[in-house]
Amino acid sequence: MLLIRFILLALLFYLVSKIFVSLFSARTTEPQNTIHGNPHNQPLDLSEQDVEDVDFRDVSRDK
After folding, report:
1. What pTM does this model have?
2. Distance (Å, rounded) from C-alpha 17 to C-alpha 23?
3. Separation of CA 31 from chain center
4. How far, in Å, CA of 11 to CA of 17, rounded?
5. Geometric angle at alpha carbon 49, from 44 and 55, rounded to 5°
6. d(Cα 28, Cα 18) in Å, to the nearest integer?
7. How far apart are CA 45 and CA 51, in angstroms?
8. CA-CA distance, 6 to 2, in Å (whole number)?
9. Each residue of 19-52: b (16+ CB within 10 Å) or e?
């Protein structure tokens, strides 16, 4: 009788541990999204001559 009780407790412990591992591992993994096809936006081909620095000045706002 003691051996059967020990086997049942071991089986119960195994099942509970598997359930906890599956629950906690499902929350930590991120879903993987796969994207198919080509991107619609083409990358910009800019050189140093195409980029210009801009000087900003503060504008006073009268209310």
Report:
1. 0.41
2. 10
3. 7
4. 10
5. 100
6. 16
7. 11
8. 6
9. eeeeeeeeeeeeeeeeeeeeeeeeeeeeeeeeee
Name the helix (H) or strand (E) containing 27: helix 2-28
CA distance 7 to 45: 69
Token representation of residue 34: 């796969």
pLDDT in tens, 3-59: 999 999 999 999 999 988 887 776 555 667 787 877 777 778 888 888 888 888 888
- Tokens 């000087």 found at: 55
* CA–CA gap between residue 56 and residue 58 (Å, rounded): 7
